[in-house]
Amino acid sequence: MARVALVTGGSRGIGEAISKALKAEGYEVAATYAGNDEKAKAFTEATGIKTYKWNVGDYAESKAGIEQVEADLGPIDIVVANAGITRDAPFHKMTPEQWNEVIDTNLTGVFNTIHPVWPGMRERGFGRIVVISSINGQKGQFAQVNYAATKAGDLGIIKSLAQEGASKGITANAVCPGYIATEMVMAVPEKVREKIIAQIPAGRLGEPEEIARCVAFLASDDAGFINGSTISANGGQFFV
Ligand code: CAA
Questions:
Q1: Which CATH number goes with the domain that contains 149?
Q2: What total of structural domains would you count in the chain?
Q3: Where are the alpha helices (DSSP H) in 140-182?
Q4: pLDDT tens digit string along 115-167?
Q5: Is residue 185 part of a domain?
Q6: Probe target for ligand 1 pocket from 12, 88, 91, 150, with the most ligand atoms within 8 Å of CB
Q7: Ligand 1 in reach of 51 Cβ (< 6 A)
Q8: 237 Cβ inside 6 Å of ligand 1
Q9: Model confidence at 1, in pLDDT bands (50, 70, 90)?
Q10: Contact status, residue 121 vs residue 165, Cβ threshold 8 Å
Q11: For residue 214, what are the β-bridge partners?
Q12: Over the stretch 178-193, which tens digit does the pLDDT of each residue have?
């Protein structure tokens, strides 16, 4: 039977490319989304990948949604915690709401996505966790105290889970994308974006598929000895 993969935020941006890449690898894929019904419907029509709507920042919603996915497709073997938002502002202008929204979605959302599937993975002796962090969790970013905190937090999560899951056949790894050509990056003011691109040695934004291929590898049997690691895919912009 095909393994089942869950991709949060899987109908748009980097998540869309990940969902498609995992389907192409032969997995049964479920993609979650938070609000854009129209896009999710079009995505399912185009790809045949089922979509589920829930707020990853809410534990009860996540747990119920995951139970529904497992009822429909079977036990989840692969989790890609990809859903993320930005609420950029220089720190002196950042509001507690901007802080909390980003923490809830990007950090607590990762907990809420992994925690309900973890016991099943332990019982079955297999699991693949891939968290989509960011270059800005590695290096920090002007106007992203909230976002950078969550993306750095993701790296703490996978390093700890790697140690807890290894004896149960579960790996936990992260991908740190640099600036990728998605709506999120296109929302950055054009002048600012041009300056950012000038800092990327590759001279261009990354493509979502370039991140998806990293995820497909980490989800594969071939990656079984890779645990607690981070793949940086950023065109040479930052080295750890
Ligand atoms: N470094 C240093 N200074 C910077 C700066 C930077 N990167 N960016 C802006 N500034 C400075 C400006 O020059 C300006 O300085 P002055 O006041 O002296 O002129 C000041 O900061 C900006 O002040 P504003 O009042 O104009 O700022 P604002 O409240 O309008 O905020 C902004 C603007 C939100 C910072 C906007 O510039 C922005 O969106 N920047 C991009 C932030 C960014 O890179 N976000 C990443 C999004 S993509 C992503 O997150 C995906 C991923 O994982 C990579």
A1: 3.40.50.720
A2: 1
A3: 145-165
A4: 999 999 999 999 999 999 999 999 999 999 999 999 999 999 999 999 999 99
A5: no
A6: 88
A7: no
A8: no
A9: confident
A10: yes
A11: none
A12: 999 999 999 999 999 9
pLDDT given at position 59: 98
Q: Is residue 190 part of a domain?
A: no
Answer yes or no: is 74 within a domain.
yes
205 touches ligand 1 (CB under 6 Å): no
Range of the domain at 128: 4-180+207-230
Please determine, for residue 240, whether its predicted confidence score (pLDDT) is greater than 90: no
Report how far apart, in Å, the C-alpha atoms of 110 and of each of 71, 85, 204, 226 are: 21, 12, 29, 20
As a whole number of angstroms, the distance between CA 105 and CA 112 comes to 9
Tens of pLDDT, residue by residue over 38-67, are 999 999 999 999 999 999 999 999 999 999
Q: Is 192 in the pocket of ligand 1 (CB under 6 A)?
A: yes
Which residues 6+ apart lie within 8 Å of 128 measured at CB? 77, 78, 79, 170, 171, 218, 219, 223
- Residue 236 maps to a domain: no
Crossing angle for the helix pair 13-24 and 37-47, to the nearest 10 degrees = 20
Per the prediction, the chain carries an average pLDDT of: 97
Please name the residue whose Cα sits nearest to atom 2 of ligand 1.
Answer: 142
